[in-house]
Design brief:
Blueprint (H helix, E strand, L loop, with lengths): L11 H24 L14 E2 L12 E3 L5 E3 L9 E6 L6 H15 L9 E6 L6 H15 L8 E4 L3 H10 L2 E2 L1 E3 L4 E3 L3 E5 L5 E6 L5 H12 L6 H8 L1 E4 L4 E4 L1 H36 L5
Length: 291
């Protein structure tokens, strides 16, 4: 046990040091149990919850679901020539799913790319008991918040049966369980970007998604088919980190770009100076001035 001795001089400085020491011990005592909790003490319901990164895995596009109007659709209907942002939620979720959808909404508001034009946003419920009417109500709520009429053709909310849901969630590594105690699904949160042919391209975790990362993820997933030339140049300077689910600046690539720009600038300057010199020589020759 640590022995904290009092300051014999009784000065205010000594009392202050002792007070700080006591506070530090209390804080450490509170932090250590939380950080050192063994994995075995993790609630059993959470042991099978998480996301397994299955990059480049193929999503079965022949799976059938119901869209927000109750029409039977196949995933292939949404995978044509655009990347897809997949959100796995359930519409009656009281907490995390709403945060996930709110995070997606914030991204859609700030992205220069628009759902329905450059990509498709696909929300799928993993609760087989939920019906298209609930999906339609949820969709109407978020479309109203987005306030973009054009997004109606690019943001869809689906429901499905147990078999289709299981096949989809397994293909992207999304693991969840029903908790009979809380009577809710235990699950995590992420946006999953898929290529136009249905392969897993990028994962963005949590419920706050940096628009820059999602933008780069869509550019990557599209194979350069969306976005401007400037987008492609900027993307070259960043690299996806699959562990963190973010894009980080690659200094070496940035240095190369600056080097290329410098060389181009110097060559252009030399050509410009040579052109000006020739113009002056021609003018002098016309005036009979010998150089």
């Amino acid at each position: 046990m640590l022995d904290i001795k009092t300051d014999k001089s009784g000065t205010s400085a000594g009392k202050f040091v002792n007070a700080i020491a006591v506070i530090c011990l209390v804080v450490c005592g509170l932090c250590i149990p939380a950080n050192s909790q063994p994995a075995a003490m993790k609630p059993p319901v959470l042991k099978d919850v998480g996301i397994d990164q299955l990059l480049s895995n193929q999503v079965p596009l022949d799976l059938e679901f119901k869209d927000e109007t109750g029409t039977t659709v196949k995933l292939a209907d949404y995978f044509k020539d655009k990347p897809v942002v997949l959100s796995l939620v359930y519409y009656d979720c009281p907490q995390l799913c709403n945060l996930t959808l709110n995070g997606l909404l914030n991204v859609l508001k700030t992205l220069p790319m628009k759902p329905g034009k450059e990509f498709v946003s696909l929300v799928v419920s993993f609760d087989p008991k939920e019906q298209p009417q609930l999906a339609s109500e949820k969709r109407d709520t978020y479309l109203q918040k987005l306030a973009d009429p054009d997004a109606k053709n690019g943001w869809h909310f689906l429901t499905g049966d147990e078999a289709a849901i299981q096949a989809l969630t397994k293909s992207v590594g999304f693991r969840y369980v029903w908790d009979p105690v809380s009577k809710q699904y235990a699950h995590t949160s992420a946006l999953i970007v898929l290529t136009p042919d249905g392969k897993v391209s990028r994962y963005f975790y949590g419920f706050e998604y940096p628009p820059r990362d999602v933008r780069f993820g869509l550019l990557d997933a599209s194979g350069g088919k969306i976005g401007s030339l400037a987008d492609q140049v900027i993307l070259y300077c960043y690299q996806y980190d699959p562990v963190r689910g973010t894009y980080g600046l690659v200094l070496m690539r940035l240095t190369r770009i600056f080097a290329v720009i410098t060389i181009i600038t110097l060559v252009a300057l030399i050509l410009f100076l040579r052109h000006k010199t020739k113009q002056k020589e021609a003018a002098w020759a016309a005036q009979g001035i010998k150089v």
